[in-house]
Amino acid sequence: MDEKALPGRLPERDRPWVMRTYAGHSSAAATNALFRRNLAKGQTGLSVAFDLPTQTGYDPDHELATGEVGRVGVPVAHLGDMRALFDGIPLADMNTSMTINAPAMWLLGLYGTVATEQGAELASCAGTTQNDIIKEYLSRGTHIFPPAASLRLTADVVAYALREMPRWNPVNICSYHLQEAGATPVQEVAFALATAVAVLDAVRDSGQLPAQRMGDVVQRISFFVNAGVRFVEEIAKMRAFGALWDEITRDRYGVEDPKQRRFRYGVQVNSLGLTEAQPENNVQRIVLEMLGVTLSRQARARAVQLPAWNEALGLPRPWDQQWSLRMQQVLAYESDLLEYPDLFDGSHVMTALVDEIVTGARAELATVLEMGGVVAAVESGYLKSALVASLAGRRRRIEAGSDVVVGVNRFTETESSPLTAAGAEAVVQVDPAVEVAASVAVRAWRADRDAAAVDAALARLRADAATTTNLMAATLECVGAGVTTGEWAAALRQVFGEYRAPTGLAGGSASGGDEGLAEVRARVAATARELGSGRLRLLVGKPGLDGHSNGAEQIAVRARDAGFEVVYQGIRLTAGQIVAAAVEEDVDLVGLSVLSGSHLAAVPAVLDGLRAAGRPDLPVVVGGIIPARDAEQLRVAGVARVFTPKDFALTGIIDELVTVIRQANEL
After folding, report:
1. Residue 358 main-chain phi, psi, to 5 deg
2. Percentage of the residues of the chain whose pLDDT score is greater than 70
3. Could you report the per-residue pLDDT of 207-258, keeping only the tens digit for each?
4. Residue 63 — pLDDT band, cuts 50, 70, 90?
5. Least confident of 90-104, 120-134, 283-297, 392-406
6. Which pLDDT score, from 0 to 100, does residue 1 have?
7. Active-site residue (options: 137, 160, 176, 499)
8. What value does the mean pLDDT take over residues 262-289?
9. For residues 15 and 34, what is the distance between their CA atoms, to the nearest angstrom?
10. May I ask which residue range the UniProt record assigns to the signal sequence (predicted)?
11. Which pLDDT score, from 0 to 100, does residue 431 have?
């Protein structure tokens, strides 16, 4: 019997998804070499990671960029960098995803210009700009401008792309970081769809496209989701996503063509769920999470990128990324998954689970829309508070042991891992000279250009921003004149202003059911009495451009529950601002959170600032993704304690903070 004729087999295999690795670091030239190696290994698309200065609209020589250049992605400061990034890579043949949000218009302008220089037709270029600013206010922190101005930029990019780059996805609604910030499946679906509604409404209401083209707009909206280890629930979530998207685009926007209403999404599986303890366990986590977005043909991702096993330790090496790519290739090419129709059609269990998520998400979406939409829900703090509360609940369950994390809160006995053996470089180390070279290069770029053309282009950008004119034309003029990333963003900052998002701390409480917290609360109160103060005061600081604030927020919530008065001013602070707040608020302890790898620059700057301000006695602790040898350097520099992802018990951390205060005051 012909094997292909077996019952249930498809007449043809489903086509594999686009396979990517999220890559970028150090410099455009180094990242270009990494791209070429990955493509040679069978990767079928590119996914560009930009460094934090690029993501937040700063040049490498800006004060806030100190320690951040090339750390979590590639620095792209101008057209020359974009040329180097894609040197020798034919963009006409490539599907490129760019994880860029606040300056998405700028990076698309750079990309399109380089593609044109290569001889590509813009209409043939395929790829994606993430361009979802809402989740930046809620979870990732690389926003620049206020919500209304940001949505205007998004709508402008959508209108431009539909006219000039019809194969491009101008927006990639990103629920990925919502899950990492604590979102339940219901919240992830509802909040992402609320964002999609805001984008579609903004495009429709901008008047830049005729009403009959809304189907074309909907067809180019893609999504970028997260997949956790509860892969059965993740399958149901993705099927629920598709059902609700079909419903919204049909009923709210009148899109009649089912093909235009198809839910199109790419995925990266959960990086923050990976553990520093027993990191080899991350391999099976990644595989299970991949199954959640590939098993169901009806809701299968069309692009997948997987993190590497060692991302809780630092920046993955090319070999680590290759391992993750091979996971995808084994599933797609060795297994028989793509030979069958949907495995879950007719499943009573799956149907009930999908219905449950759809019902809950529909109700949550209605709540957000009744508030005036997702922008109003961001500005009121409703969404952020909901995420902080959900994440606090998850942390509480992990600490209680009801949510098991193998190797962390259960089955912690372990052999030493050969993957992290002494002497082995388990992660890529970014040379500090990278930042110096990038700063020198951007100053040389500025010096070697037509200053009058730059001034004229920036003047046009500011003038157009003050009107309702689509800003893509002015942006392209800036690209051609040699304007830098920081200059483009600074011009728009002058018109739009900047935005500091709500922290959401008021909505979170992590104390329920924690028996140990009462003892810590008593120690906090006793220590305050011994110091003669009303309450112990903790400053939680996020230096530099690292916007991943989940950990800092959870520490702030638990410290508040333990009786601390918490000073938390949000993300993106200079060392000087943190020092000033510590002195003015007369705090007892400074806690710094750094997850971008810039700790060896950011932390000493705060320590030096405290000494200059006459407070060398004020203890400082640090938390983040910090290798052991870096932790020792920080302790030698004067840091009292270093906490890493293996320190998951928040109440224990708060207890240790009390000990630090007592030791600093010789109690």
Report:
1. -60, -45
2. 96
3. 999 989 999 999 999 999 999 999 999 999 999 999 999 999 999 999 999 9
4. confident
5. 392-406
6. 41
7. 176
8. 92
9. 26
10. none
11. 81
- Six-digit token pair at 332? 């797609």
DSSP at 154: H
CA atoms within 13 A on the CB side of 453: 15
Q: Is 259 known to be catalytic? A: no
Q: Where are the beta strands (DSSP E) in 336-397?
A: none
51 classed as catalytic: no
Query: Which residue among 78, 548, 588, 630 is the active-site one?
Result: 548
Crossing angle for the helix pair 104-117 and 472-481, to the nearest 10 degrees: 60
Query: In whole angstroms, what is the distance from residue 35 CA to residue 29 CA?
Result: 10
Residue of 156, 546, 561, 630 with catalytic role: 546
Residue among 78, 384, 542, 599 flagged as catalytic: 542
| Residue 627 contacts residue 595 (beta carbons within 8 Å) | no
The rounded distance, in Å, linking the Cα atoms of 477 and 482 is 9
Instruction: Return the bridge partners of 46, or none.
Output: 96
Residue 471: pLDDT over 50: yes
**Is residue 568 flagged as an active site residue?**
no
Q: Among this protein's residues, is 546 annotated catalytic?
A: yes
List the beta strands (DSSP E) in 392-468: none
3-class DSSP string for 570-631: CCCECHHHHHHHHHHCCCCEEEEEECCCCHHHHHHHHHHHHHHCCCCCCCEEEEECCCHHHH
pLDDT digits (tens, 9 = 90+) for 336-372: 999 999 999 999 999 999 999 999 999 999 999 999 9
Catalytic one among 25, 177, 237, 384? 177
* Residues contacting 129, CB < 8 A, separation 6+: 98, 100, 104, 107, 108, 157, 168, 169, 170, 171, 172
Q: What does the angle CA 93 – CA 34 – CA 54 come to, to the nearest 5 degrees?
A: 85
Q: Compute how many other C-beta atoms are within 10 angstroms of the C-beta atom of residue 352.
A: 10
pTM (predicted TM-score): 0.89
Nearest Cα neighbor of 75 from 30, 35, 38 is: 30
Distance CA 359, CA 355 (A): 6
Selected catalytic residue, list 22, 58, 382, 568: 22
Contact, 364 vs 178, CB < 8 A?
no
Other CB atoms within 10 A of residue 340 CB: 14
- Look up 22 and say whether it is catalytic: yes
Cβ neighbours of residue 240 closer than 8 Å, sequence gap 6 or more: 185, 189, 354, 357, 358, 361
